[in-house]
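WARN  no MSA supplied for this record, continuing single-sequence
INFO  ligand: magnesium ion
INFO  echoing inputs
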Amino acid sequence: MAWRERIWAREGVDDDTIEECTQGQPDQVIEIEKPIVGGDFARAGAGASEIKRLVKKLAVPPAVVRRVAVACFEGEVNVTVYATRGTIKARITPACIFVVVADEGPGIPDIEQAMQPGWTTATPEVREMGFGAGLGLPNIRENTDYLKVRSEVGTGTILEFAFLLRDI
Ligand SMILES: Nc1ncnc2c1ncn2[C@@H]1O[C@H](COP(=O)(O)OP(=O)(O)OP(=O)(O)O)[C@@H](O)[C@H]1O
Ligand SMILES: [Mg+2]
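INFO  complex generated
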């Protein structure tokens, strides 16, 4: 098997932009990391909530806080629903908020297809809990300035996404 990768970015944003914006003096950088447990629906979204609380406290504009909360929640829930275990990490610098959601799980065979609104492999049980509309990944893309999805079938999935806090 092989790792596959797809990147979506707002116009003018690329890997170099992300590399640059995630730098910062240690005293200007805040990092938070939370575990995600596959199947633990009672705690799904807990990590996203903590990240939301943190960015709110850092006086990030409310519109950005909302986008961060939505993207983190959707990423975290996907790990809960589809994977065995994972982590959600946020790195906050003066220039951007950079989030990594990584899991050990089945991986995504066709990233392009998974990104289509309405595409889902959710089971009836998952749908009964209110998930499985096939809108999580499209929602993440819409709410971020940069999104990279990497996945290997049988290994897992890594989402990296960013919110710029300054004009580029
Ligand atoms: N971390 C993951 N590991 C494995 N497969 C995933 C992962 N995240 C998403 N997928 C696959 O991509 C599909 C689309 O994901 P997406 O989040 O857009 O929708 P959903 O989770 O099915 O429904 P919703 O997010 O609206 O509740 C999923 O049904 C699943 O097949
Ligand atoms: Mg989802």
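Residues 4-164 form a domain with the Heat Shock Protein 90 fold (CATH 3.30.565.10).
INFO  checksum written, moving to next record
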